[in-house]
Amino acid sequence: xxxxxxxxxxxxxxxxxxxxxxxxxxxxxxxxxxxxxxxxxxxxxxxxxxxxxxxxxxxxxxxxxxxxxxxxxxxxxxxxxxxxxxxxxxxxxxxxxxxxxxxxxxxxxxxxxxxxxxxxxxxxxxxxxxxxxxxxxxxxxxxxxxxxxxxxxxxxxxxxxxxxxxxxxxxxxxxxxxxxxxxxxxxxxxxxxxxxxxxxxxxxxxxxxxxxxxxxxxxxxxxxxxxxxxxxxxxxxxxxxxxxxxxxxxxxxxxxxxxxxxxxxxxxxxxxxxxxxxxxxxxxxxxxxxxxxxxxxxxxxxxxxxxxxxxxxxxxxxxxxxxxxxxxxxxxxxxxxxxxxxxxxxxxxxxxxxxxxxxxxxxxxxxxxxxxxxxxxxxxxxxxxxxxxxxxxxxxxxxxxxxxxxxxxxxxxxxxxxxxxxxxxxxxxxxxxxxxxxxxxxxxxxxxxxxxxxxxxxxxxxxxxxxxxxxxxxxxxxxxxxxxxxxxxxxxxxxxxxxxxxxxxxxxxxxxx
Amino acid sequence: xxxxxxxxxxxxxxxxxxxxxxxxxxxxxxxxxxxxxxxxxxxxxxxxxxxxxxxxxxxxxxxxxxxxxxxxxxxxxxxxxxxxxxxxxxxxxxxxxxxxxxxxxxxxxxxxxxxxxxxxxxxxxxxxxxxxxxxxxxxxxxxxxxxxxxxxxxxxxxxxxxxxxxxxxxxxxxxxxxxxxxxxxxxxxxxxxxxxxxxxxxxxxxxxxxxxxxxxxx
Lengths: 513, 218
Fold this sequence. Notes:
Chain A has 513 residues and is α+β, with helices and mostly antiparallel strands. Chain A is 48% helix and 15% strand. Chain A has helices at 6-49, 65-73, 120-135, 202-252, 268-317, 322-353, 366-383, 401-417, 479-489; strands at residues 140-145, 151-154, 172-177, 180-188, 194-200, 361-365, 387-392, 396-400, 424-431, 435-442, 493-497, 504-511. In chain A, helix 6 (322-353) packs parallel to helix 9 (479-489), helix 7 runs parallel beside helix 8 (401-417) and helix 8 (401-417) runs antiparallel to helix 9 (479-489). The longest helix of chain A is centred in the middle third of the chain and has 51 residues, at 202-252. Chain A is rod-shaped, with a radius of gyration of 57 Å. Chain B has 218 residues and is of the alpha/beta class. A 5-stranded parallel β-sheet of chain B has the order 2-1-3-4-5, sandwiched between helices. A 4-stranded antiparallel β-sheet of chain B has the order 6-7-8-9, with helices on one face. Chain B has a 3-stranded antiparallel β-sheet with strand order 10-12-11. In chain B, strand 3 (47-51), helix 3 (59-67) and strand 4 (74-78) form a beta-alpha-beta unit. In chain B, helix 2 (33-42) runs parallel beside helix 3 (59-67) and helix 6 (151-162) crosses helix 8 (187-200). Classes of the chains: A alpha+beta (513), B alpha/beta (218). The A-B interface holds A 295, 298-299, 302-303, 305-311, 313-314, 317-318, 331, 335, 464-465, 467-468, 470, 472-473 and B 8-12, 15-16, 18-19, 22, 31-32, 53, 55-56, 79-80, 100-105.
């Protein structure tokens, strides 16, 4: 589950990356340091024995001194080695032989307590080697061979498994002697004589170990620090997302009035927050509207239901004349009809709300529709002595004839209802370039400005003070709301203009399909 | 008992008025809040049945204005049964609340309960002298023997019994026995008094000349 969280994924990846980088850096540092140390040692070793190089060429006699040492080592005295004859030595003329500078003579220097005949080169070398040896720690040894393998010198602390380096051996070698690590450096003369010096690298190892531990600690600290800083940073950046989730959860539990707080309007998260808040706003409004509609609808239903129950109970309360029963039953049936109309209207409206309204489009002419609707309602108008005049120009298009007919009937009968006696109604249809228009105007009291914005509202019964007519139970309050919904379903518009005391005009405009 | 029914739905209003009249209540009606308030302020009703959703002036407004001047018991009727509206109604001074659609029997029972509450007679059974009246079942017994009464006779008797020990004026009787549609003359009162005296005894209802009638308590 951790791997699903963006924050944790970010953290893990970044910390891993950091760890890899830090580790790589530290490792290279470590090896670099090691290399440096070894090179320093190597250089110092090499520096010490390099001066000897010119002295290596001539064959030398092995000194007795070394015998003791060999005995210490546990081996027997070395086999006698052949002295190799070498060519005449280079003279003091300075003419180099074998590429070597003229040998230097060291006067006054001798390292031979035993007193063998002083052989300048050997003695010098050996003396030199002994001097070097003395200058160093215990774990430092020197060795020297001739080309043929004859040992010239071997220091006391040299390991037993020391060996003359093969020609192709690297100039510097880490070897293990006496179960300890050493670094051996050797130089060789063109004749093949070799001087080798070895030094204990234990200390280097120790230093490197301690360095390793330090580096590990540093590395871990860096990664931890990186992790913590990263954690803090991602927390800060992602906090809005957490707050968004929490609020969204609250809203899902029903409190649609909540909004997400934010001062940030510019970052990506800020924009997201704003979009979400807008969405919640719309949702809240929509839900409120639904609730109100449902409440209004059930309220409307209760009225005819109360009448049926009351009338029925009254009729049954005692023995009555059949005329009383008849009247009671008629009232019940009327109320039931009213409820049926109501539920049909509600169904249409809910179809529109949910976008479920399927229009049955067919080619027709608005003028034809208006004509037939008017004919149907003429008798009703006549009852109130209302004159209907028509001006029906062709207005063809594709539309849902049945529904639009219902809409027109609603508008015309409203006009008749709200017209004054002896008044007049004018109906016209015509075609514009992109739309067809139906217009109806009626003389009468007009619609006051405070009522006008609400006339298309659901369940709004125009002038409540006026409905003392017995047909108030017939009016569902949904006629105009449904008419409007039909018009909207055709992507059209409906407008009403009126003023108190003036004519009222309704205009329906539909785009031509 | 005289009752006022304020309800804009004419069918419903007519049914309630008829039902109450059949039960012996003198009942008036009003189709909107304005007329309802006018009548309520100008006559002494025993109970007012008041609808909430009405044109011109809604039930809450009528109630508030009425309460400034009168303590008439009010039963509110409404199709809105949300708690908010019930609370609002009761807090505005209604005595009871009934949601539509309602049972006529329940309406009657609540009306009677309200009438009981106003008087000091919480007990539906009232006894005075040799008569026992049960206001819930609207029956009367004379020394244990049930007595048949017409609705009007019962109504008048109930007024006397509830006001036992007090003088009841003819005007009061008239106002509380006949509603506005009743064209009876006031001498109808004498007819009903006579009939009651026939059933319960001449001295049961005494006349106080110039004042009215009285049933004396023992």
